[in-house]
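Sanity check

After download, print the first record. It should look like this:
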Amino acid sequence: MPYYIGNTERRQLKRSMGVRALAAIRAWLFRLLLILSLAFHQQAIARTAPLSDEQVAAIDRFIERQREATSIPGIALVVRRGGEIAYRRGIGMDGSGRPFSPATQVWLGSLSKSFTALAVAQLAVAKKIDLDQPVARYLPDFRMADPRGAMITVRNLMEHRSGLTDANLPDWGHPWPDTYAEATRRVQRIKALSSAPGTQIAYHNANYMVLADLVEHVSSEKFERYLNTHVFTPLDMRSALAVAHLDGGPSSVPPGHVFIFGRPLALRPPGMFIGGAGGVIANADDLSRWLEAFARSGRHPEEDRLLPPGMLASLLRPKSNAGYVYGYGWVLRQPGTDLVRHNGGLPTFVAHGAFAPDASLSIAVTTNGSLANPAWSEVGEDIADGVVAILAGQPVTTIPTARVGPRVDVAALAFVCLFAALTPLLVRSRRWRERLRAAQGNARLWIWFRASIVPALVIGILLVGIPAAIGSIESWSWFWLWFLAPVVTTSLWLLSLIAAVLLLWRWGAMRS
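Expected structure tokens:
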């Protein structure tokens, strides 16, 4: 007998079919989400998994080669993936004869700028500073001869867009300031900015010295104390401290090294003022913690201890499409890398910090040798780039083993010896005297000129021409240059002295 379904049963059947269909859709969506999550998880594992034995061995070999090529006595490296330490090692010795390790304190140099920028950002969050207001609003005595100086904003200083350059304010020239207020007054004394504020990038340490002065004024705290209380302590950076002068570090910081004929010489740094721009001391472990604070900001809100959640990450987003973007103490974008990074170089130390904005990688490098190492290598940056290549399975670019530095030292000293040996032959005092006696009128002036031109040119080239050439490329001072290249700098001085003796000898002989 045929079975007929009533209305009530029909509704029940439709309801059961709908439930089964909904369940099937849910199961299908679950499988899809599971597949996607597994794919994402596998990608995350690939980016943040601990290093393989092969990768560790490759990094070991790489930093050993870097140390051999540069003759830098000590190198420390800390690599994190996904926030976890994946590699931590130190090799070599410090300037006191102890093993150099990630726990060894060093000067961070220009990496210190990111600490200064962070302090300014904290004050901006507290509504004590507006980054787009003129500096003069917070430093009432900030007045410059150039009227455009009144338009310099806090953000301009943080992005090196203030118009300050080595052309109008030699970065390491004398006299050095002794306080942050004096550093600001030194800026105020310049006659003209090199460009309108906010228009051009020109890296200059004075920008961050003025920012440190601003922090002191607005917070009513000493700059060094402010960093300790509001930055180092929250991040548990126990090795970190800030000082204003290079000779103001504690005895726990071993000396770094300069190079003489390719051999490292342990030397305490000079007593120059670097506060705000290069005065932070820390070890590689704490530098790694600092990098992670930026890399993980916004992704792990519970770890945002310095600024409101996500604000650090927002500061690191480039505000322009330019190939090179600088801001808040970091190189936010530059050709050839996806990492946010900054180098730190001082006469006897080099450090480098780099991290991926997606928190997948951070690299902290500290060394105790100058940039003028025998290979003339940007050793911190080179090591960071090498680690990135190894992790990506790419060939590693090795530093040439040609000993450029020692060869330049030997050549400079050999030229001094040659010039000194030829000096008696160049004097020819009797010949010039006889010529001068026989000459009359304008001919006497011509003889004086001929007798003076060679030594005068030598002095001019060595003491004026070479410094001008260096100054057109990089900030410098004779004192700074000596710490980077002691033999070459001393050779320039000796050549100038010999040329001056030659000139005076000729003049004396001709007047007798």
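If your output differs, re-run the checksum step. Summary of this record's structure: Residues 1-48 have pLDDT under 50 and may be disordered.
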